Amino acid sequence: MKFVQDLVHRIKNVIVGTPPVTASAIREKFERFKQVLHCNQTALELIADMGEKLSGEYLFDRHYIETTFEELSETLLKCIHNLNALCDNRYTELYEVFDRIHDRLQLILQGREDRQGPPVILLREISKAEYTIVGGKALHLAKIIGDLELPVPDGFVITTKAYHDVIAYNGLNPKVDRLEGLLASPHASPEDIEALRKEVRQAISRIEPPPKLIEDIGLALGRLKNNTEGPLRLAVRSSAQEEDMDFSFAGQFDSVLNVEPAPEKVFSAYKTVVASLFGRYVIEYRRAVLEGEGQMSIAALCQIMVDGKSSGVLYTTDPLDPASDVMVVVANWGQGEAVVDGKMPTDTFRLSKKDRVKVIDKKVSKKEEGLFLSPKGGLEKRKIPEDLQDKPCLSDEQLIELGEMGIKLENYFKHPQDIEWAVGQDDDVLILQSRALLVKKDEVIDRSLLNLEEKYELISSGEGRTAQQGIGYGPVKIVKNIQELKDVPEGAVLVSPRDMSVFVQVMKKVSAIVTEVGTPVSHMSTICRELCVPCLVNVKGIMSKVHDGMEVTVDAEDRKIYKGKVGELLVYRSCQQMNVFESSDFRLLRRLLSEVSRLNLVDPLIEDFRIEKCETYHDILRFIHEKAVKELIDLGKDPKRLLQGLITKRLDLPIPAGILVVDLGGGISKDAPEDHCEFKHIVSIPFKALLHGMMTPGVWHTEVMEVSFRDVVTSMINAPTDAIDGQYSGHNIAIVTREYVNLSLRFGYHFNIVDAYCSDIPRDNHIYFRFLGGATDITKRSRRARLIGEILMSYDLNVKMKGDVVTARMTNMPREDMERVLEILGRLIGFTRQLDVHMDSDETVQRYLDAFLRGEYDVVCQ
Amino acid sequence: MIDKSDNPLRLIIIDDEPIVGKRLKQVFSKMGFQVEIFTNPISALEFMENNPFDIVVTDFKMEELDGMEILSRAKQLNPKARVIIITGYAKPETAKEAFKSGVFDFMVKPFRLDELKEAVSRAAKTQG
């Protein structure tokens, strides 16, 4: 907190001294607006810079993380100050939000964030902010439930926060801290570690639960029971912080199965799981593999125990031949422990995953015994009925269903998976756990990776930038607009002319993304890193080199794209333990950034765009940007305020648009006459583009449209009273600077508002468009609104429609793209000006849409 | 550029963060180098005293021995060797001193792996 107060003080000193903004000081408001944009830009650049460091292309250290984070915090505070200065201190609550987020980020930097949050959470209710306190196994399951909607047994998590509470409640902190200290020291003797480990483990077997924890477990059990039919039993398993995530601890923690659903019984099982964090193997593994890195805590996953008819594992890639398109299923009757232990005979099935899942081979063994739930708790060995012993323990339909789930999981996690599954008594296939499949442990380097270009045809080599490293293979699917996203198949390599953040919709199923234009600091690139989607951006000429369905292998590490399947690279991918090459600094930055850059305020067109919804730095930045733009738009709505004391010029155009221009600086060329200007005098980049569109030949119809008496009456009743002034009332106003335009156009009974900032810095740029009203009845007006919405969507604007109101936005685009869209908007304004009169059937929407997209503007007169 | 025959150039990487070493080993092996990684600079020196090497990439700030010492020992053992120092805390004097002592390149974190790959490739060319 001291840091924040100091910072607030320092920054206030810097920006105090400028007089308060008054209503008439429009120029100054605009200056302040530019300062908001500038700080916003700097902050976003810092976030982008940190994000780029996570592409795998960089080496960095803690010093970088700390200094960049401090700089970012300072910049964000400046941004908040500037917004408040712009908006007469209407957003001072942002300081509190900032403090709250800043404190949480500090905890992450100190490695203490696993001590926050609730001690018990239902598996289905885990939010992103709680990802770090539920452990690796539960985190994977939460993602599988939330993002893939695959069937997973219900349950709850006793979090790492509860672990720290329990350790503290039982006075074990000094011992545990001493052990962690020894583990972190390269000079500690193994004997000392072992002695202390035993001591801690014994102490844990005697721990007592804090009363609140028993209460919370009881509540969670109650909720589970309410949602469950029949008797409820639980499996209590470890979900350690690093388990299943960056390092595999497979089989090193204890689980307690078939536990009675009573809080005390659950706590007793929990003790066993916690004690295994201090098992000999785990401690040795931590020293050997993690080399003492970081402190560890453990969460426990308490899941409904599936009374399995059959269970087993699915490898989504054949561990013995990772380049093949084969998945392997190993199964037995009863519980999966029989399969995992490898002590009983099992069935082995091979599935092809090429095109669609097919069963290609079955090896069915004689299965005389299996493990089943014991009425006394735990598992018991039972004889399998004779008629089942030689039967495959999965039907073909179940195998295919399981295989399809496996493909989804592999595509989602971008790595072959090792999946535990069970078939319940009702024959439903359930996913119990999914983690990265590690093919071989030691040497991952293969000399066969050299000279690949001699064996395979290269489509692109060394072009573009890596947004996220990794290997992806699949058929190409070209996506040019949002509409085409729905056709992207599972496992495809998405190729697009430019990067779009809406690709997030398909990221869980594509194997890689390649764009012809784009940058590793774009929003899309950030999401690719978050979801580990191998991604190359700015790959020149890629659109002309590939076509739909063409199989390619993308090596985002070496920036190479090969035609066909490069088996060597797929083997290489399977051999990489997920993220094992990430240093502790890398993981710290990733964690910090996920809390900095996660965006909850995604869409300003929905009403929920409020301060209290800001959970991250990025949210605050987004909020500030939006409110600053709004302030400017509101300014433009009040012509009286604008016209006071400012130089306005009449704009003479070949079309009768009746616009007055208010130049706040650099928007009109100096050689314009005093009282008026012409198109040639306009130097405002966005205004010029708009006018260019409005003046496109054929777009601006001047014929008088026949309006029915009914239309006129309805519109007079519906329109705001000040709107019924007749055409070209002289109140059309454009406020401009070199990079900015706010244009309010009122034509008869409808309004167009365009607010656009268009500069050479894509992140500063925005277009906001609003259309409403009309002279006809609401049905026709709504048809026109729908047409406008459809046209805008075709050009990738984010559109919201309600009745006869259309709002659309576009941000973060390069100048040329902004100019292109503004020109389209100009044409649209002209084209649809009196169109509602003609829109007497729903078919007209499609007809005019097609006409507009083809550039046939004269269709209106036909 | 890089010898893809059976006589690859020998690259030594010294960084007290084990995972950085592993990462770099992966990158440079994929490029065709024969790579040895060390987290302890003293073990690295022992290795260098008994084995041939062509290029050394070393962290600057390490507990037992700093990058400058590695640089001077490496140059004594093999005057043709190319040494690249990487560091997170850059002081102009340090860089100046390193260049005076014959460092091939001095790289300040954060940097792109491509830049390091390029530096190592340049070092490899001068070895050719």
Structure, briefly:
The complex is a heterodimer of chains A (862) and B (128). By secondary structure, chain A is of the alpha+beta class. Chain A contains 26 helices and 31 strands.
Helix content of chain A: 25-40%
Give the oligomeric state of the chains in this entry, treating copies of one chain as homo and distinct chains as hetero.
heterodimer
Overall pLDDT of chain A, averaged?
A: 83
Strand content of chain B: 15-25%
- Rounded radius of gyration of chain B (Å): 13 Å
Q: pLDDT below 50 for ≥5 consecutive residues: which ranges of chain A?
A: 12-24, 441-445, 704-730
Distance between the termini of chain A: 69 Å
- Mean pLDDT across the residues of chain B is 87
Number of strands of chain A: 31
Question: SSE layout and pairings?
Answer:
The complex is a heterodimer of chains A (862) and B (128).
Chain A: H1 2-15, H2 26-52, E1 58-59, H3 62-86, H4 93-109, E2 120-122, H5 135-148, E3 155-158, H6 160-169, H7 173-184, H8 190-205, H9 211-226, E4 234-240, E5 256-259, H10 263-275, H11 280-288, E6 298-304, E7 310-315, E8 326-333, H12 337-340, E9 347-352, E10 358-363, E11 369-373, E12 379-383, H13 386-389, H14 396-413, E13 417-423, E14 429-436, H15 452-455, E15 458-461, E16 465-468, E17 471-478, E18 493-496, E19 512-515, H16 523-530, E20 535-537, H17 542-545, E21 551-555, E22 560-563, H18 567-575, H19 584-597, H20 617-636, H21 639-643, E23 648-652, E24 659-665, E25 676-678, H22 685-694, H23 709-718, E26 732-737, E27 740-747, E28 750-757, E29 766-773, H24 778-794, E30 798-802, E31 805-811, H25 815-831, H26 843-854
Parallel strand pairs in A: 17-18, 18-19, 19-20, 23-25, 24-26
Antiparallel strand pairs in A: 2-3, 3-6, 4-5, 4-6, 7-8, 7-13, 8-9, 9-10, 11-12, 13-14, 15-22, 16-20, 17-21, 21-22, 23-24, 26-27, 27-28, 28-29, 29-31, 30-31
Chain B: E1 10-14, H1 18-30, E2 34-38, H2 41-50, E3 55-59, H3 67-77, E4 82-87, H4 92-100, E5 105-108, E6 111-112, H5 113-127
Parallel strand pairs in B: 1-2, 1-3, 3-4, 4-5
Helix pairs in contact in B: 2-3
